[in-house]
Amino acid sequence: MTLLNATNIAHDFEYPLFTDINLSLDAHESMAIIGASGSGKSTLLHILSSLLKPKEGKVELFNKDIYALKKQELVEMRRNDIGMVFQSHYLFKGFSAYENLEVAAKLSNTEIDESVLDSLGIKEVIHQKVTELSGGQQQRVSIARVLIKKPRLIFADEPTGNLDSETAFDVMKLFSEYIQSHDAAMVLVTHEKSLAMECDHVYKLVDMKLEKVK
C-alpha cells in the first residue's frame, strides 16, 4: 500500500533548491534524506508533510492530492494521520510533560500508551513541568506525543539531535517497530548518516537532485 507519492517536485526561494524530485513510500517502509546544510532537506520534508506547497509538482498522501484538499480535510489528515517531529519541541511550556501528551491524545481521540513512555525512558519525569526537563527529555516527550497519535505517516526532522548516540538508536528502533506494527511509514531528515542507514531507503540531496544511497 503506497502512503506517499511525490511527482516532479520543484521549489525555490531566492535561489533554486531542487527540481524534478520523485519519491514514493509504502506502508512498513522508512526513508531517510541526507545532505549538506542548506541543501533543502527540511524544505522538502515540509512539502512532503503538507506544510509547504511546492512551486511545481504533486504530493499524494494516502492517494489524496494534499494541496488540492479543502482546508478542513487537510486539518483532519494532519490531526489523525500525520505525525511530525521537529528539531524544536513545540511543547506547551506551562504544562507538564503528561499534560502535553493528554492534549495530543484528546485531539486525535487516542489514549496515552504507557509502553511508549517506558520505551523512551520518560515515565519517571512525565509529571514534571516541561521547563524542568533537559533538552533530550523534551525531545523524547515530543516523540511520544507523535507516537500516541498513532499516525500512518511520520515526518521527522533531526528527531535525535538532542539525544546521545545510544538513545538515538533506541529511538530509531522504536520508530521501526512502530511502522511495522501499525501499517505506517516514516520519512526522516538527518545529518547522521549512521542513523539514516537504519532506514529502508536513503537519498542524498545534492546539486538540486536526489541521489539514491541505499
List the helices and strands and how they pair.
Layout: E1 2-12, E2 16-26, E3 30-34, H1 41-48, E4 56-61, E5 64-65, H2 71-80, E6 82-85, H3 97-108, H4 114-120, H5 135-147, E7 153-157, H6 165-181, E8 185-189, H7 193-196, E9 201-206, E10 209-212
Parallel strand pairs: 3-8, 3-9, 6-7, 7-8
Antiparallel strand pairs: 1-2, 1-4, 4-5, 9-10
Helix pairs in contact: 3-5
Provide structural commentary.
β4 (56-61) and β5 (64-65) form a beta hairpin. The strands form two sheets. The chain has a six-stranded mixed sheet, sandwiched between helices. The protein contains seven helices and ten strands. It is globular and about 45 Å long. α3 packs parallel to α5 (135-147). It has 214 residues and is an alpha/beta fold. The mean pLDDT is 94. The protein has a domain at 2-91 and 155-212: P-loop containing nucleotide triphosphate hydrolases (Rossmann fold, 3-Layer(aba) Sandwich).
Task: Report a brief summary of the structure.
The chain has 214 residues and is an alpha/beta fold. The chain contains seven helices and ten strands.
